[in-house]
Write a structure and sequence with these properties.
The complex is a heterodimer.
Chain A lengths: L3 H11 L13 E2 L7 H18 L5 H7 L4 E2 L11 H4 L8 H23 L7 H26 L23 H18 L14 H14 L3 H14 L8 H5 L8 E7 L8 E2 L10 E2 L1 H6 L5 H5 E3 L5 E3 L12 E2 L1 E7 H15 L4 H11 L16 H16 L5 H7 L3 H7 L28 H6 L11
Antiparallel strand pairs in A: 2-5, 3-9, 4-8, 6-7
Helix pairs in contact in A: 2-5, 2-6, 5-6, 6-7, 7-8, 8-9, 9-13, 13-14, 13-15
Chain B lengths: L1 H14 L6 E9 L9 E4 L2 E7 L5 E6 L4 E5 L6 E4 L6 E5 L9 E4 L2 E4 L7 E5 L11 H4 L7 E4 L10 E4 L12 E4 L2 E2 L7 H4 L19 E7 L2 H4 L10 E6 L5 E16 L8 H19 L24 H4 L10 H5 L3 E13 L3 E13 L6 E14 L4 E15 L12 H7 L17 H7 L11 H7 L1 E20 L2 E19 L18 E24 L3 E26 L10 E26 L3 E12 L8 E12 L11 E15 L10 E3 L4 E3 L2 E3 L3 E2 L10 E14 L3 E20 L8 E25 L2 E18 L6 E4 L7 E4 L6 E4 L2 E4 L3 H6 L11 E3 L14 E4 L5 E11 L2 E11 L2 E4 L31 H4 L6 E3 L2 E12 L2 H6 L4 E15 L20 E2 L6 E11 L1
Parallel strand pairs in B: 1-7, 13-16, 46-50
Antiparallel strand pairs in B: 1-4, 2-3, 2-5, 5-6, 8-9, 10-15, 11-12, 13-14, 15-16, 17-18, 17-51, 18-19, 19-20, 20-21, 21-22, 22-23, 23-24, 24-25, 25-26, 26-27, 27-28, 28-29, 29-34, 30-33, 31-32, 34-35, 35-36, 36-37, 37-44, 38-39, 39-40, 40-43, 41-42, 44-45, 45-48, 46-47, 48-49, 49-51
The chains are: A mainly alpha, B mainly beta.
């Protein structure tokens, strides 16, 4: 009998199935999440966070500003570099920052998709449910809107990913379909979203934000009647006005009625602030001589650009002197504001019928916010082209460092002409970059990141010319 | 069989006439005094008369006076003793002069070398003793065929890279399993979770806690037949460490001590102050001109230029050729001669019931980087006692305390990596101020004042000496064993073992030390952290062993067992910034404080068995099977099964075999399946990240999102290994063994890159496959040349070929980033982690050549011409090629020991041939920003370019690839043992003095500090990169061994 003793011991182990069933100790897992209203709220917050990433230095700024004639890469070296290549039209598909933006856009989209996939099954206030859906639809549309403007055709994903491996072999979706999805999402979002939030929830997407973004989408699509329709919706909703104090729009602590949608970075805790890059400010996104010269005597230059200790010129819109304990700063990145609504409407009016006195009036509203600026009068504008030049100039100096310039140049088909003119490089009055460059037609779109092409097994096609 | 024969003889004896006979009584022991049961005793000339020794080695036999007794035991020299009626015959049997009877420790048991039919290499204590090493693995380099040990880092106590038979995994662990006295060690003890976060990471070798002089022997289990009994942990090989035991007899006290000095073994060739000044001027002028070639000239005053294109004013006198200016050699200023001392004291002894071994060790090894080193204190108690005839209890207990003083070496300049920072320092600047204090902030001020953009690195002497960077490690490893002999042939053993450890990591960067973006007194970069981690690893093993011989012919040994093991790791971090003063450095005095916590655990439940059968000792067959269930495996793949089978044939025991020149000939073959469970703890679960926060109003709200995709099929990596081998003993003193192996690994865990459209960048899948095949040869000679001289020589050779067979679906290759983007590639058909980049063909010599040759972007005369591999007229990412790899074509180890009278000499050397290194130091030591490698003054170098992170230097190319083949004399020692005349006078047992040298010579073409360098240990995808690792030092010691 006693010989059996050890065997008995051995057998007892067999019952210890739970011994090898261990749950993570310091991490939450998906298995027990997305069950309650609070869970889904956190999923929505994470979607905002996904969009916030796109507004960090080295993301949208390099597509919207550094690429254009507005800013350049001061750290540019004689042989370029990954950041400088945006500036010098020397991008290759291997560029890290290119892939960062692609990747981060889709992680934001995935977070939106998760919320949309899971929210219907959750027992929560139906009204709140609608608002949450509206918010993430807007955020998803915003991400797709950047993607489609940067790359043209991109993969369209609107469902939660169950098996990432199934994406290998997937192709790019025609840009037209992407725009359709954006327009559908924004239309639905506008139906679901409220116009205002309580002070503690301020910063969430509003109905006017969805309408305003739709106006911008239609502007890119050159559907001017729709631009008028949606800019008018924002104007008639009367929730936004021009701020008398231009600087207040960008001041983190300033509450400004002009802002329609922004992305906030709060310094001091949890690494939520905007990265503080350098005592001499952002080397990679420095105002070009060409931009500063273009202001002439417009007081907005002083309100926008300051000189650093080493003679570089940085934008006050993305800088703040108060560095928090976590080496970050408070910043708000303005995505949509009322001045843009007025200028978009002005542009659409002009495109649908020149001359148009209302268009001129709208432009002057923005321009003469600074009393030192004289209004433009119709006699200065002899053609539609003249008017476009004035408007583009107005947009450039009004929105400099708000990540709009490059997209404005591309959508108006001016990119090639403008960028070629300023191709010489160096410290000249009309130079858009630190180094000389050649602008080619391929440069209107960006190369698809090689990492993505490789990961797809080659099924993602490259843009022509790269 | 033997016993049966003896029994038969005894029966015959009882019936025979027993006249005028006396009782011959006595005891038989081995050379170490251990009692030997089962020794056959017979009467010379009368083979029927005889007996065998009992369990305690005693015997009684009735014989006539004057009879000659023969004592026989297989594997021992037969002894004759003439019985003249003496009482208490003491016989000590000497080993046959072969290794056949050496006990070989295998998983959950032991066997003799004779019966080994798998691939196992044994290293005994002699090869480990008296070496100035902090861990035993450092002493194994070049001694074991098939094991590639690289001292990738020269820090005292720094981690080593050890791979058995090639790299066995791509993303999983590649370290072997270490088992000490039956307890598998926590191999993950050296990872970030246990030793601190990446930013201040420095991996300390988890084997430091084992005192090399406590080790009796080490078995390296290489093939699947040997390691399959360790199941899902067997793929990377198993290293079994057995510590010393006491032996019966009077206590033996031994004391060993050595002391020595280490120094930098080699310097890296960088520019001196004059060279650098001229080079910098040239680079800055070119940069300035290039900004606007139409108007800018080299003669333009510095004041006209922007900060980037100016050079520091202090370079101007050098450029003007003034003589006698300061010319600091920063490597001479920085690296120091470092002292080492080590003391071992041990007492061992016991009686027939109880045996003990107790040791104490203290080691203080300073590093050649100032303010770095290791201090170790360890104790060991090994006790074994027979509670009664059936019950035996043993305990091994080894507490240790290690105080590591760390230097941040393997980091780039931006992270204040000291090695690269020393090389980048401008030699125009002095290390000290006239008053003797450190010259600080000069490079910072040069930038801050707008004078010139230069490397922003603090004086490395100030950094090394003023920054606190420590790790205290407390560890207790133990095992308790209870053995119960249920029946004569049936033994039960239960083991309760454990490995408890605690690490306390502290870091402090003082207020008084400027940072490159913040002038002292610093606030944000006045940073301190305390990182606490503990690990509890508990093991309970049970085995039943059955051993019997049937009909004299059939030997059978069966082991059945179970094992439960669980490890829990916890860590907490407290960090602070902006301390009140530098005097008190605890976090409570910091203005800003943060904290963090992490926990993880894994468990393993196993059932295993081994059956060994031998027929007449000639035909050997062993099979093993293990079933492992692990918490790390996905829900659908909770259990893995790992079988093996091996067979051997000892041809030399066949009747037809004529034992002449060859005394032993064994052929063996094995096949087995093993696993690698060194995969992420919770890889099968979709985890949520809490970093998805966002601010509404002015309140930060928490947000969660999944950052990993689930995979319920996640499992171990599987390796199927075939091994065929041969063991020969010949010409009396020689032995030879050869092995061929082919290990085919499937289910390799890969973080398969997936399109980001999925929301993820990768998905963890068991999907890859690769093969390691190779040969191992070992030849040894141990020859007694004369009565007072002995020579032993062993040579080993091994060659391994690694080949990736499959990656993710449709995936042909994985390109990985080391210090340079895309510097490594893992491509199907090639080895894992080969070097990748552009092939440099030469330099553009003229404008005409520029026009007619494919360019990378816009190039200029003096730039590298890169190969346009696909011939499409432009050089781009598609033109990259494989440039080499870090896997040696072959390695050879040579170990010699020779003794002549009282003198002894030993040396070991090894070589690795046919492999390369990617010298990423080019990224920073070529920018005319800090100092530069001297090679940039050579004709082959490209034109000077200046620029932080400029793409010329961040582009991996054949320019950075260097041949790293080397021959290294690992150690040499010469000793003298004093004769009896001296020792008797001092009343001591033995006294030896010696001098030893570690790494005295290395021959290599490699230009960096160490050809075995690897900055990314732990990543099979990016091996062989030089990114400023702690340089290897050369050590000389003198020591003494004293035995009472």
């Amino acid at each position: 009998m006693k010989y059996l003793f050890p065997f008995l011991l051995i057998l007892t182990l067999a019952s210890c199935k739970s011994y090898i069933d261990l749950k993570p100790l310091s991490e939450n897992s998906v298995d027990n999440f997305y069950k309650t209203e609070s869970d889904i709220n956190q999923g929505v917050v994470a979607t905002y966070d996904g969009i916030q990433t796109l507004m960090r230095p080295g993301y949208l700024d390099h597509f919207g500003e550094v690429r254009s004639d507005n800013s350049y890469n001061f750290a540019t070296t004689p042989v370029g570099g990954a950041y400088a290549d945006f500036d010098n039209f020397n991008l290759t598909s291997a560029n890290t920052y290119l892939n960062n933006f692609w990747h981060s856009s889709y992680t934001a989209i995935q977070r939106a998709n998760i919320v949309l996939n899971r929210i219907d099954a959750i027992n929560m206030d139906e009204n709140l449910k609608r608002i949450r859906k509206g918010e993430v639809k807007f955020l998803r549309a915003l991400a797709y809107f950047y993607l489609v403007q940067i790359w043209g055709d991109v993969p369209l994903v609107v469902d939660e990913t169950k098996d990432p491996m199934s994406f290998i072999g997937q192709q790019r979706t025609p840009a037209q379909q992407i725009y359709n999805q954006i327009i559908t999402d924004l239309g639905e979002a506008a139906e679901m979203l409220p116009q205002t939030y309580s002070a503690t929830e301020e910063g969430r997407v509003t109905k006017s934000a969805a309408d305003a973004l739709l106006a911008r989408v239609y502007l890119v699509r050159k559907d001017f009647p729709k631009v008028l329709e949606y800019t008018n919706k924002v104007i008639s909703a009367a929730k936004h006005t021009l701020d008398k104090d231009y600087s207040n729009i960008f001041r983190y602590s300033g509450k400004s009625d002009e802002v329609i949608f922004k992305i906030s970075f709060k310094s001091g805790t949890n690494s939520e602030g905007f990265p503080y890059l350098n005592v001499n400010h952002d080397y990679n996104n420095t105002a070009s001589r060409d931009l500063m010269e273009s202001y002439k005597n417009d007081p907005r230059l002083a309100a926008n650009v300051k000189e650093s200790g080493i003679k570089t010129y940085y934008s006050t819109k993305i800088h703040n002197e108060n560095v928090g304990a976590d080496n970050t700063i408070d910043i708000k990145i303005v995505v949509l504001r009322y001045a843009d609504i007025l200028l978009m409407k002005a542009e659409a009016l002009n495109e649908t019928g020149f001359p148009n006195s209302e268009a001129l009036n709208l432009l002057n509203q923005v321009r003469t916010r600074f009393t030192a600026n004289q209004p433009i009068v119709q006699s200065q504008l002899s053609s539609k082209k003249d008017w476009q030049n004035v408007l583009m100039h107005e947009r450039r100096i009004e929105f400099a460092f708000e990540n709009l310039r490059w997209f404005d140049l591309v959508r108006t088909d001016l990119a090639k002409e403008v960028m070629t003119e300023k191709r010489f490089g160096g410290d000249r009055t009309n130079s858009a970059s630190a180094l000389p460059y050649t602008f080619a037609d391929r440069d209107l779109l960006f190369p698809v990141p090689q990492v993505q092409i490789d990961a797809s097994g080659g099924s993602l096609a490259q843009n022509p010319g790269y | 069989m033997r016993k049966f024969y003896v029994l038969l003889v005894a029966m015959l004896l009882q019936t025979g006439a027993l006249l005028a006979q006396q009782n011959a009584q006595g005891r038989v022991s081995d050379s170490e005094g251990n009692p030997m049961p089962g020794v056959s005793i017979s009467v010379k000339g009368s083979p029927q008369t005889g007996t065998a020794t009992a369990e305690n080695g005693t015997f009684t036999l009735q014989v006539k006076s004057g009879t000659i007794l023969l004592f026989r035991m297989i594997g021992y020299q037969t002894q004759e003793v003439t019985f003249n009626g003496q009482s208490g015959i003491v016989v000590q049997l000497k080993d046959e002069n072969t290794n056949l009877n050496d006990v070989v420790v295998v998983g959950y048991g032991t066997t003799s070398r004779r019966n080994v039919i798998s691939s196992i290499t044994t290293i005994d204590s002699k090869q480990l003793e008296n070496k100035p090493v902090t861990s035993f693995d450092q002493a194994l380099a070049g001694k074991v065929p098939g094991v590639n040990i690289s001292q990738s880092n020269g820090a005292p106590g720094g981690g080593l890279s050890v791979t058995v038979r090639g790299t066995g995994s791509i993303t999983g662990g590649t370290d072997p399993l270490y088992v000490i006295d039956g307890v598998p060690l926590s191999t993950n003890n050296g990872d970030r979770f246990s030793q601190g976060n990446n930013n201040f990471n420095y991996q300390v070798n988890p084997l430091n806690s084992i005192n090399p002089s406590d080790i009796e022997n080490i078995q390296i289990l290489k093939d699947a037949a040997a390691t399959a009994i360790y199941g899902s942990r067997g793929s990377n090989g198993v290293v079994i460490i057995t510590t010393k035991k006491g032996s019966a007899g009077a206590p033996t006290i031994s004391f060993n001590a050595y002391g020595g000095v280490s120094s930098l073994a080699k310097k890296v060739d960088v520019m001196d102050a004059y060279q650098l000044s001229n080079y910098t001027k040239l680079a800055r002028d070119l940069s300035w001109i290039n900004k606007d070639p139409l108007t800018h000239k080299a003669t333009d005053a510095l004041s006209l230029r922007n900060i980037d294109d100016r050079y520091p004013a202090y370079m101007i006198p050098y450029i003007n050729g003034e003589t006698g200016l300061n010319n600091t050699d920063w490597q001479d200023e920085f690296y120091r001669k470092a002292a080492t001392q080590n003391y071992d004291l041990s007492v061992s002894g016991g009686n027939e019931k109880t045996r003990y071994f107790i040791s104490a060790n203290y080691m203080d090894q300073q590093g050649i980087i100032p303010n770095s080193g290791i201090k170790k204190t360890g104790l060991r108690l090994n006790l074994e006692t027979k509670l009664n005839d059936k019950l035996k209890y043993s305990i091994n207990l080894a507490p240790s305390y290690i105080a590591n003083n760390l230097a941040r070496s393997e980091k780039n300049w931006g992270d204040e990596g000291l090695v690269i920072g020393v090389l980048m320092q401008h030699p125009q600047l002095p290390a000290y101020n006239p008053d003797g204090s450190y010259q600080v902030d000069r490079l910072f001020e040069t930038l801050w004042s707008g004078e010139s953009n230069v490397v922003q690195f603090q004086n490395p002497l100030a950094l090394a000496n003023q920054v606190d960077n420590k790790m205290d490690q407390y560890r207790l490893t133990f095992s308790n064993n209870l053995e119960y002999n249920i029946l004569k042939n049936l033994k039960f053993k239960t083991t309760l073992g454990g490995d408890f450890s605690q690490n306390i990591r502290t870091y402090y960067r003082p207020k008084s030390l400027s940072y490159r973006t913040e002038k002292a007194p610093t606030t944000y970069f006045n940073y301190g952290s305390v990182f606490n981690s503990n690990s509890v690893n508990i093991l309970w093993d049970n085995t039943v062993e059955y051993k019997n011989t049937f009909a004299d012919k059939h030997d059978l040994n069966i082991v059945l067992g179970t094992s439960m093991q669980k490890e829990t790791n916890k860590n907490t971090t407290a960090e602070g910034r902006n301390f009140a003063t530098d005097n008190v450095r605890t976090i409570n005095t910091a203005q800003e404080r943060y904290s963090d916590e992490g926990q993880r655990e894994w468990s393993l439940l196993s059932y295993f068995t081994r059956a060994s059968y031998s027929y007449l000792g000639k035909y050997l067959l062993t099979g093993t099977l293990r079933a492992d269930g692990s918490s790390k495996f996905g829900a659908n793949t909770k259990w893995g099964y790992f079988p093996s089978v091996s067979a051997g044939w000892r041809i030399s025991d066949e009747k037809f075999f004529n034992k002449g020149f060859i005394s032993e000939l064994k052929m063996r073959a094995s096949y087995g399946v093993t696993g690698n469970n060194d995969i992420p703890y919770y890889g099968s679960v979709a985890l949520l990240s809490t970093t998805g926060k966002y601010t509404f109003g002015d309140v930060v709200q928490s947000g969660l999102y999944p950052n990993t995709a689930p995979n319920e099929n996640l499992s171990w990596e599987t390796t199927k290994t075939i091994d065929a081998g041969l063991d020969i003993n010949f010409a009396k003193d020689f032995s030879f063994s050869a092995d061929y192996y082919n290990a085919h690994t499937t289910d390799l865990l890969l973080d398969v890159p997936v399109p980001s459209a999925s929301g993820y960048s990768s998905s963890l899948q068991n999907i890859g496959a690769m093969r390691n095949q190779g040969i191992e040869l070992m030849m040894a000679m141990n020859k007694t040349l004369s009565s007072h001289s002995n020579l032993s020589v062993s040579v080993n050779f091994s060659a391994n070929r690694n080949k990736v067979l499959a990656l993710g679906p449709g995936q042909k290759q994985i390109i990985s980033n080391g210090g340079l983007t895309g510097s490594h590639i893992t491509r199907i058909g090639n080895a894992v982690g080969e070097f990748y980049g552009y092939q440099v063909l030469g330099k553009f010599e003229s404008a005409a050549q520029l026009g007619s040759t494919a360019q990378f972007g816009k190039q200029a005369v003096g730039d590298f011409i890169y190969q346009d591999t696909n011939g499409d007229g432009v050089v781009n990412a598609d033109d990259r090629v494989i440039l080499g790899n870090n896997n040696p074509d072959y390695q050879i180890g040579l170990n010699i020991s020779y003794s002549y009278k009282n003198f002894d000499f030993s040396a070991s050397a090894y070589t690795k041939q046919g492999f390369q290194i990617i010298n990423t130091m080019h990224r920073y030591l070529a920018e005319a920003w800090g100092n530069n490698l001297s090679v940039y003054l050579s004709d082959a170098a490209p034109r000077p370019v200046w620029g932080v992170g400029s793409s010329t230097h961040t582009r991996a190319s054949s320019w950075q690839i260097e041949d790293a083949s080397f021959i290294r004399i690992r150690d040499i020692s010469v000793g003298y043992t004093f004769g009896k005349a001296v020792t008797d006078k001092l009343s001591i047992g033995r006294l030896r003095i010696y001098t030893a040298f570690m790494n005295p010579f290395t021959w290599t073409k490699y230009s960096g500090y160490n050809p075995e360098v690897s900055s990314n240990t732990g990543s099979a995808l990016t091996p062989g990169e030089e990114f400023g690792n702690y340089p290897v030092s050369r050590t000389s010691t003198i020591g003494l061994n004293l035995t009472f």
